[in-house]
Write a structure and sequence with these properties.
This protein is an alpha/beta fold. The chain contains 8 helices and 9 strands.
Length: 267
């Protein structure tokens, strides 16, 4: 698979789908998350769970990451040119924080596409263990100094731990979908969500009260489709679950800002 992936990167077989982030209270699209797919010549469209774990533990990781960032920034630049100024989230492996050249390469890409650093957010995934926490912390500071925001994706899964929260001090945590399921009947999940909301508030990671305010995400769509609000898939099927999250947060007395909830399908 890795040999094929190396060819896929060179042949531009990687494509991006864009998952809208929508506020439930206003139904406003507030940003997108870039999700990589592999348009394989023989096998068709392949989802990331079939190839990202292998890439993440291989020498291809840097080239793969650079390619996905290139695709996302290219689309962001196109949106900007057409008057759409929404923030885009890009998934990267936490292992990239051990790459001394990652930040300089990212800054060159931002300059090339003329995308402000504040318009992107890097979501750190944790399917591979980050060994050097000290180096990771230094890299996070570099990114923050240049205006790039970060979040921890799928918190509670993989290798994520409270050590990462302490060392990296990222402003946003995205709970793994397993913990935001059946909140109305699952006391453990409901208690965990409530506790983490209060924890985030206590750490001062809330930019404004209720900044998230029942936030949600919808189905992925192509870059061109994302330009038209009418093309955004209806968020109705997530309304109940996210409303329950918001209610639980309200009961805890903690604003939902700083803590996002990942209810993604077809990733």
């Amino acid at each position: 698979m890795l040999a094929e992936m190396a060819q896929a990167i060179r042949r531009n077989e990687l494509i991006m789908h864009y998952q809208p982030k929508i506020r439930l209270d206003t139904r406003e699209v507030v940003g997108f998350e870039a999700l990589v797919r592999w348009q394989h010549g023989r096998k068709g469209l392949i989802g990331p769970y079939h190839f990202v774990p292998a890439v993440e533990s291989s020498p291809l990781l840097a080239a793969f990451t650079d390619k996905t960032i290139e695709l996302a920034l290219g689309q962001c630049a196109l949106w900007q040119a057409r008057g759409h100024f929404l923030k885009i989230a890009i998934n990267i492996s936490a292992r990239m924080l051990e790459d001394d050249e990652f930040v300089p390469r990212l800054l060159r890409q931002l300059a090339f596409y003329e995308v402000p650093a504040a318009r992107i957010s890097l979501e750190l995934t944790e399917t591979a263990l980050l060994v050097n926490l000290a180096k990771g912390q230094a890299m996070v500071h570099q990114l923050r100094d240049h205006g790039v925001s970060l979040s921890i994706d799928d918190f509670g899964a993989g290798y994520t731990s409270f050590t990462y929260l302490r060392e990296f001090m990222v402003p946003e945590i995205k709970l793994d979908c397993a913990f935001v399921t059946d909140l109305e009947v699952n006391r453990f999940n409901a208690s965990l969500v409530r506790s983490l909301a209060m924890f985030c508030e206590a750490l001062g990671r809330i930019s404004s009260p209720r900044a998230l305010s029942a936030g949600m995400i919808g189905r992925p769509c192509s870059g061109s489709a994302a330009e038209s609000p009418r093309a955004i898939p209806s968020p109705g099927r997530w309304r109940g679950g996210c409303a329950a999250v918001a209610a639980r947060m309200g009961e805890a007395g903690a604003g939902a800002a700083g803590l996002r909830f990942s209810r993604q399908e077809s990733l």
